[in-house]
Specification:
heterodimer; A: 345 residues; mainly beta; five-stranded antiparallel beta sheet; B: alpha+beta; six-stranded antiparallel beta sheet; 11 strands
Chain lengths: 345, 617
């Protein structure tokens, strides 16, 4: 991978990748330099996950080819272990695709090291048949738990230490597209049936519908739960430029609908430390940072013209992925076409 | 600047500030700061007094009609100073501390922030622009200050042009956010005008309609004309009159600050818009409407827009600024000042980020055109579909529906996805059941579904045969014991043997067998009937679709009814209604029973078991 500097905006740091990139994850380790895992997106069996570090001082990307590993089919999501041991030189990263896989990445520094597959978590009873995973989320409060969402309408909660399924729920009537943990035993999921549901593992029989898309059965494609303020969730719809902000205390009525994108929204991420900031990106090539209004007191209404974003960035091509680094909250990573850019907030 | 008595000192300070104010306004620059030599540390310059004449974001006014323009300016600078003091004191409880009229951090523009931060600066001998000016005792005119490296000028983000003049016992610094070329005459004017102006003055400029195409020294020279007369009349009750008088000044500043022709239209629109009044409240966003040319209801509008233009212009300059480690000093200052407030953090991030951030402040113009992308959310949809690439390989082992499934997948995500899903689920269920069946039926060796079913059927039949066999064996055992009791061993045996054999070989068709038995062996048959006759058993069984009707007449004995019902239950018949009567020790019984299971006992079987029960007499 070559490193090139963007001519358009000297404050966006660009890296060219030999193949299109979709999945992206920031390492949550505060001590080490910014480390990114990038999953390729090739519509075939052979895909890769590559690692890159970024030096904030010198703004230089340094690929780590020793840590790269092959991945069967493109990874639909990548995520590092949310609470790594600070001084450890190895990290755990999970990927979803046809199955949930855990990889151990040993970075010995200076680009050396290697990655190996730790486990494949497969719950399909028949070896011939698998339901691909659309997404997963690693529970920060209880890091043994990973929740996966699948097109077979189920959500599976894995206990990765035992390597076994903790529970599998039929979450929706249609394919589940995204899942996000709130607390240790509570997660939310969105589906093609257009609903956002919250599940509590203590009461698996019942789920709460927090929101349903107004035009029935408009699929909700992505969900993000604000980890710094658990009242708020954001979701995006299929073929829509709107971002729905939900307050879980008042279900069914969104707090706000953010409508300033000029084309469909593809991805979004809450700010890891600020309570109500959100960044979204879409097909218009824009990454917008919003400040979400606090849930309105009953009786007040939002301004009719809607909420405006605070900041914006233009990438010039459809942005497919956006991640806000939890360890280095000044940095947002975006992926478009074959490029990965790091933006400073 | 020392004066005996606090009051006099205060008054002198005030006057000094006014003089500063006048100077700055005279030249229409953005700010003036007087750095005085510290009394505590020799040769170190500290912020002593300042006047901020630049853009303001929000104006907090307690008495709307009473302030003159210069008073407002002074007050603003005072408010900024107060804010700085309170922030640097590191008070966490800021919200309740600030009275309504004073400023809170959100009210400030970026330039105001820089001005505020400047208050924190100190200059050692020869360091920084003021330090150098003092050391060399010469004035310094710095153009393009934003390009200056940090050693020369660290606060370069506030001003494009900075002038430092050693003055009295300190350094007078003036700055403007515009490019002004060096002009010795101007400097002389600064110093002279400082002394000339002894009373508050707001310069009145003639109202220019055409904007200034270039800012050059000629224009500045024009501006240096001082009108000594006070511009504003003493406060009147007529707010509108004052507003209109204020109007031109605002226009001036607007014209000066902008280089964009669109602003001209804006000011015209403003003129046409008519009156506006002072506004007590914070108004931040309305000016964005103003951009589109609509009415601007408040006088606080213009600075934000001007600021936006400024930001846009200066941002490009800022990007090219080469900041080394030292220059992050003010960023650090900001951080330390603002670190107490969480909300401010984001603000400060924007502010600090304002110099290096990849993001720009969003403007409504961005939404103007809708971008028609190719296929919307293309990659995202591919990711979520689970994709043909995955299932093409995965399904190789599945027996049925492979071709159908992969075709369905390739045809697209939207419509067929749910169809396929339910189909897939159904197949999965079926497969699971087949596997379960395989585990139950022990004899199954093969794995394909057809043979599983065949073998299961055979197994079930086998089981049924065995059940019958066991049941009839038990019955014959009873028969035997009865026959023995009646001292007819041979006949009983024969009967039992034949009966038993025939029962075993012929499953359900016992009624026929009975007849056969009758035909073949009349003795047995008679014997059989003799039994019936002896016991006066008369059974009639009628079967319909769902139920059976039994009519029974027989000798009554103890527990007979119970045993009859038990026998019926064993035949998987559920008695729905029972009518019974006993007369002359003859039990007349009518039972309606419905079938419990799908496999129904034949009338013959029912009769036979009833006879067995009754026959134990």
């Amino acid at each position: 991978m070559e490193q090139s500097s963007s001519l358009l905006n000297p404050n966006a740091y660009t890296m060219d990748s030999p193949h299109p990139v979709y999945a992206m994850a920031f390492s949550p380790s505060v001590s080490s330099p910014l480390r990114l895992a990038l999953g390729s997106f090739l519509e075939e069996y052979n895909n890769r996950v590559d690692f890159v570090t970024f030096d904030e001082e010198s703004t230089v990307f340094r690929p780590e080819p020793a840590l790269s590993f092959d991945h069967p089919y493109p990874a639909t999501k990548l995520m590092f272990h949310p609470r790594p041991i600070p001084s450890s030189t190895s990290s755990l990263i999970a990927s979803s695709g046809d199955f949930l896989r855990l990889w151990q990445v040993n970075h010995d520094g200076d680009g050396a090291g290697k990655s190996e597959l730790r486990s494949v978590l497969n719950n399909s009873k028949s070896s011939d048949f698998c339901a691909p995973l659309t997404s997963f989320d690693w529970n920060e409060a209880e890091p043994r738990r990973i929740g996966t969402s699948s097109i077979d309408t189920t959500c599976t909660v894995w206990d990765i230490e035992r390597g076994a399924v903790e529970t599998q729920l039929i979450a929706h009537d249609k394919e589940v597209y995204d899942i996000a943990w709130g607390e240790a035993g509570v997660f939310a999921s969105v589906s093609a049936d257009g609903s956002v549901r919250i599940f509590d593992l203590r009461d698996k029989e019942h789920s709460t519908i927090v929101y349903e898309s107004p035009r029935p059965d408009t699929p909700l494609l992505r969900l993000a739960w604000n980890k710094s303020d658990l009242r708020y969730m954001a979701a995006i719809l299929m073929d829509s430029n709107r971002i729905i902000i939900l307050d879980i205390r008042s279900p069914a009525i969104p707090v706000a609908e953010l409508q300033r994108h000029r084309a469909c929204v593809n991805t979004l991420a809450w700010a890891p430390q600020a309570p109500r900031h959100l960044c979204s990106a879409g097909d218009d090539g824009q990454a917008l940072i919003w400040e979400v209004p606090a849930a309105a007191a009953p009786g007040t209404t939002l301004p009719p013209e809607g909420v405006d974003p605070m900041l914006s960035y233009s990438a010039g091509a459809e942005i497919n992925q956006l991640q806000w680094s939890a360890a280095h909250p000044d940095w947002i990573g975006i992926a478009f076409a074959s490029k990965v850019q790091l933006l400073r907030v | 600047m020392e004066a005996p008595g606090a009051y006099q000192e205060e008054a002198q300070q005030q006057r000094f500030r006014r003089q500063l104010a006048a100077v700055v306004k005279n030249f229409q620059w953005s700010y003036a700061i007087f750095w005085s030599i510290s009394t505590t540390q020799p040769e170190v310059l500290l912020w002593s007094a300042g006047y901020y004449n630049g853009d303001i974001k929000t104006r907090k006014i307690t008495q709307p009609m009473e302030f003159k323009d210069d008073e407002m300016g002074l007050e603003r600078s005072e408010q900024l100073r107060e804010l700085y003091i309170s922030l640097s004191a590191g008070d966490t409880n800021q919200q309740c501390k600030w009275p309504s009229a004073s400023l809170s951090p959100e009210d400030l523009t970026d330039t105001e922030w820089y001005y505020l931060i400047s208050m924190s600066f100190t200059f050692g001998p020869g360091l920084g622009l003021p330090g150098k000016a003092l050391a060399s005792n010469e004035q310094i005119w710095l153009c393009n200050a934003q390009f200056a490296d940090s050693k020369t000028f660290m606060r370069s983000l506030l001003a494009k042009t900075v002038v430092c003049v050693p003055f009295m016992s300190g350094v007078l610094e003036l700055g403007t956010t515009e490019m002004v070329l060096e002009d010795q005459a101007l400097i002389k004017h600064i110093t002279t005008s400082f002394w000339e102006i002894s009373f508050p003055v707001c310069t009145e400029q003639s109202i220019y309609d055409p904007p200034f195409p270039e800012r050059d020294e000629e224009n500045n020279m024009i501006y240096s004309v001082i009108s000594p007369s006070a511009l504003f009349a003493p406060p009147t009750d007529n707010a509108i009159k004052e507003a209109e008088e204020l109007h031109p000044n605002i226009y001036e500043e607007l014209n000066i600050d902008s280089s964009d022709d669109s602003w001209k239209d804006l000011t015209n629109a403003q003129q046409m818009a008519g009156s506006f009044g002072f506004n007590n409240e914070l108004i931040e966003d309305e000016f964005s409407n103003g951009v589109n040319g609509s009415l601007i209801p408040s006088e606080c509008m213009f600075p934000k827009a001007a600021f936006d233009i400024l930001t846009e212009k200066t941002e490009l300059d800022l990007f090219s600024l080469d900041l080394d480690g030292d220059a992050s000093y003010y960023a650090n200052t900001l951080v330390s000042i603002l670190k107490n407030s969480k909300e401010l953090n984001s603000f400060s991030r924007n502010l600090i980020g304002g110099c290096e951030s990849s993001f720009v402040v969003w403007r409504k113009s961005f939404v103007a055109e809708k971008v028609v992308a190719g296929a919307s959310q293309k990659l995202l949809k591919k990711v979520l579909s689970g994709g043909t690439w995955i299932n093409g390989d995965c399904l190789k082992g599945v027996q049925e529906g492979v071709g159908l499934q992969s075709q369905v997948w390739k045809s697209g995500v939207d419509v067929s996805a749910s169809h396929v899903m339910s189909e897939r689920r159904r197949r999965e269920k079926l497969n699971e059941k087949f596997v379960a069946l395989r585990s139950i039926v022990p004899s199954i060796s093969k794995v394909d579904k057809a043979s599983i079913l065949v073998e299961t059927i055979e197994y079930v039949k086998e089981l049924e045969r065995r059940v019958e066999e066991l049941e009839s064996c038990r019955e014959l055992f009873d028969h035997e014991s009865r026959a023995l009791r009646k001292n007819n061993p041979d006949l009983a045996e024969r009967t039992s043997d034949n009966y038993c054999v025939k029962a075993m070989s012929n499953g359900k068709k016992i009624s026929l067998n009975k007849r056969k038995v009758c035909d073949v062996d009349e003795a047995e048959a008679e014997h059989h009937w003799v039994f019936s006759q002896d016991c006066h058993l008369d059974i009639n069984v009628t079967m319909s679709d769902q139920e059976a009707l039994l009519v029974l007449h027989c000798q009554w004995r103890e527990f007979l009814l119970l045993e009859i019902l038990e026998a019926i239950g064993n035949l998987h018949l559920d008695p729905v209604s029972v009518q019974s009567s006993i007369s002359e020790s003859i039990l007349a019984l009518t039972i309606k029973a419905k079938f419990i299971k799908s496999v129904v006992a034949s009338p013959g079987m029912i009769k036979q078991s009833l006879q067995r029960v009754v026959g134990k007499c």
